Amino acid sequence: MQLITQAPSEAVATSSAALELQQAYDKYSASYDDLDGGAAADALGFPQLRAQLLAQAQGRTLEVAVGTGLNLQYYSWAAAVAAVAAPAAGGADADDAGAASAAASAPAAAATGGVTSLDTVDLSPGMLAQAQARVRGSPSLAGRPIAFQQADVAALPYADSSFDTVVDTFSLCVFPDPQAAMNELARVVRPAASSGGSGGGSGGGGGGGGGRLLLLEHSRSDNPLLAAYQDATAGPVAALGKGCVWNQDVEGMAAKAGLRVTRVERFAVGTVELLVAEKRQ
């Protein structure tokens, strides 16, 4: 585990709205898992969805808005990485057991190669501290090549086309400028492998051997009545739900960022979207 430090923390935020978000999540950090990783999330099947999504991560991987590290237990590591830091027998903790259960329900063929390194960023130092504590307390994550860095998703500190996989889960809805965030995710992911495959969309298959963006997000439902309800309640829901705007057009934002959506699945009556996309050549 590696922590990349930078100071002062306020200098990382690219706007006053981002600074407010950072300060709010610093306050939430100690209790955040009660909301995003608690009983309600379990009842909605979120652990299984995280496992299903993250089984597809491979190569050099970036997770933005890593938060308290709820996703870390679900990554499948490349064989060479896993062999270096295999967990001690009998050392599994509750997180490890939960991840194993969720992973059992994910498609077995989803992972092809596994993650070789994992860079993570978050705007909130408090959230990053919780994520690092999770790694220290989890035998299955001990020794894995995971780096933590404070950064604003609107200005990621990486060169273009740096990553094979870029991940975001349940965070697009809280970013002050979600389109700017999506543009940055598209910038740092590698382009799709050159192939003669046709365009994707709902129900489409996964991409080829190039980079991919993996998203699990709150989104505007494809049910017209529920979508209208989301539109009418977006303000109050954001006020009560830590700023989450739950009626965003995630596919539309991906398209505007120059991404080609290759797979979409909807859950929770269409209000949660699992999306796989790739950057056009």
TrEMBL record:
GO MF assignments: S-adenosylmethionine-dependent methyltransferase activity
Pfam family, one: Methyltransf_11
Domain named Methyltransferase type: residues: 98-191
Region (Disordered): 191-212
UniProt cross-references to InterPro entries, sorted A to Z: Methyltransf_11, Methyltransf_Superfamily, SAM-dependent_MTases_sf
Name listed for the protein in its UniProt record: Methyltransferase type 11 domain-containing protein
Ranges of biased composition (kind: Gly residues): 196-212
